[in-house]
Structure formats: C-alpha cells, structure tokens
Specification:
The protein contains three helices and six strands. By secondary structure, the protein is an alpha+beta fold. The chain has a six-stranded mixed sheet with strand order 2-1-6-5-4-3. A hairpin with a 2-residue loop joins β4 and β5.
Length: about 140
C-alpha cells in the first residue's frame, strides 16, 4: 500500500519532468538548426500545416522557410521554459534573447516565444511558432 501511494505521489512530478525535458530538447534542437543555418534539417522538422505568428502577420510553412533563410540567429540564449502536453501535442513557451533580422530590421532583445510540436508516427514535428518580439513602428 505504501509503495502504491509513493508511486502515485511521484508519478505526476516524473511525468512533468519527462514532458519538460522533451519540450526543452525539441526547442534547443530547433534553435541549433536555426543558428547553424541547417535549413534542410529544419524543413524536415516542420509539419506540412506549419503556421507562424509574428508581430507583422501570420505565415504558412513556405513563408516561414523564406524568412528563416534570411535570418542570422547565431547569437542566442533560451530561458524560462514552460511545457504543456495534451495528447500528442507539446506547447513550449520560453524566452529567447537573440540578435536577428526581421523585415529588414536588426533586433536584439529578450522576448517570449512559443513553439508547438506534434508527435506523428513516433516523430515530433514542429507545427507552430509565435515570436512575440516587439518591432519598432
């Protein structure tokens, strides 16, 4: 009986750790691909129905790939991860401190980001991204 109670108390925390570890690993892998310019690996990671939201609008997969090709995101740090899981989907929010060019404007700021991953046939695909970095008007 004591063993069962111990397992029930520890299981939720253990589950949170696994979920968080997977979410952080996926985001770190994503940023390593961005920083190295590994577009082929990024494209393979993206779901066909990928969407991204930026301050200047919403983009589909091909538009986001075109944007990524113009980015230089090699100088970055990630922090404050929060991971939620519902079924086969992981939602990962975090802060990114990055120097990058968006719409021709060079920005270096700390801003919240959110990525959504979905597990398909045992493989995690990048389904969505939100970049909440403020752009100058």
């Amino acid at each position: 009986m004591l063993l069962i109670a111990s397992v029930l108390l520890v299981a939720p925390a253990f589950g949170q750790g696994i979920k968080g570890d997977v979410g952080e690993r996926l985001v770190n892998d994503l940023w390593q691909k961005l920083a190295s310019g590994n577009l082929e690996a990024l494209e393979a990671m993206m779901a066909e129905d990928f969407q991204a939201a930026h301050q200047d609008g919403v983009q589909d997969r091909s538009q986001e790939l075109a944007l990524i090709k113009k980015l230089d995101s090699s100088d970055y740090s990630l922090s404050n991860f929060s991971v939620s899981r519902q079924g086969d989907a992981l939602l990962v929010s975090y802060y990114a401190q990055v120097g990058e060019t968006i719409s021709g404007e060079r920005l270096k700021q700390r801003a919240p980001r959110m990525d959504i991953f979905v597990s398909t046939d045992g493989d995690w695909k990048w389904l969505g991204h939100a970049n909440l970095a403020a752009m100058k008007n």
